[in-house]
Write a structure and sequence with these properties.
The chain is of the alpha/beta class. Bound molecules: phosphoenolpyruvate (PEP).
């Protein structure tokens, strides 16, 4: 049986500026220093990446970007490249978050270009997928997620797929306080893993960590993480407070 280390990711969205971000990163780092059972990634705002990357250098916490452009450089006002993330100390990058898809029109084709570029640059992409409530109610959840996985990962070799992380984040659960049941999330995660096996092979699919995201809190994290196909969590709101984020990390202990 493949054992996948739990991965706990904090997505700070557009919430913390430099000083608050540094204080938050420091508190989380101090309070998770013995959490050798899990990998931890913090995804600060762009202005916090460099100082927090420096602060967390040589600690057990990795830093990730929340987005990036698919080109190496160019006239793309307001964008950031994979190399820029790397030079700020990032190892990971969140791609295709539903807020990027909804507010900035990111399509699966765009997510695919970014994923290929992130891998080429040496970043670990966390590719987000997930259906809206309207899609779920219309019975389309499985089909939507399958399309997002297939198109988002199109053209990746088996070796490249083995190196990525996928996050299932039902849009209706993000920032709403409405969490998917562990059973429902595990069922979709199992489908995602089967799909990864179909586009590569079973061994590769078993190596990929599939995270759940959507209103993860200290009181629901353990039940989610106990499921065999839920390999970690992507946390928004609860990652902005040391108490709640470290309690979620603690939930991965067992
Ligand atoms: C997210 O930002 O990916 C997220 C899951 O947010 P929240 O935990 O606040 O629902």
């Amino acid at each position: 049986m493949t054992t996948r280390r739990s991965l706990i990711v904090g997505n700070w969205k557009m919430f913390t500026a430099i000083e608050d971000g540094i204080a938050l990163a420091r508190a989380i780092s101090e309070r998770t220093s013995d959490a050798e059972y899990a990998d931890i990634v913090l995804c600060p705002t762009y202005c916090g990446l460099y100082p927090i990357g420096e602060l967390l250098r040589n600690t057990r916490i990795a830093v990730g970007g929340q987005n990036m452009h698919w080109e190496t450089e160019g006239p793309f006002t307001g964008e950031i490249s994979a190399r820029m993330l790397l030079t700020c100390g990032c190892r990971y990058v969140i791609l295709g978050h539903s807020e990027r898809r909804t507010h900035f029109g990111e399509t699966d084709a765009v997510v695919n270009k970014k994923t290929l570029q992130a891998i080429a640059a040496g970043l670990i992409p966390i590719v987000c997928v997930g259906e809206t409530m309207a899609q779920r109610e219309a019975g389309l959840a499985d089909r939507v997620v399958e399309t997002q996985v297939r198109e988002g990962l199109s053209g990746l070799s088996g070796e490249q797929i083995a190196g990525i992380t996928v996050a299932y984040e039902p849009v209706w659960a993000i920032g709403t306080g409405r969490v998917a049941t562990p059973e429902l999330a595990d069922e979709i995660h199992t489908r995602i893993r089967n799909l990864l096996a179909a586009v590569s092979n079973r061994e590769t699919a078993n190596a990929v960590r599939v995270l759940y995201g959507g209103s993860v809190k200290p009181d629901n994290a353990a039940a989610l993480l106990a499921k065999s196909n839920i390999d970690g969590v992507l946390v928004g709101g609860a990652s902005l407070h040391p108490d709640s984020f470290t309690a979620i990390v603690e939930a991965a202990r067992s």
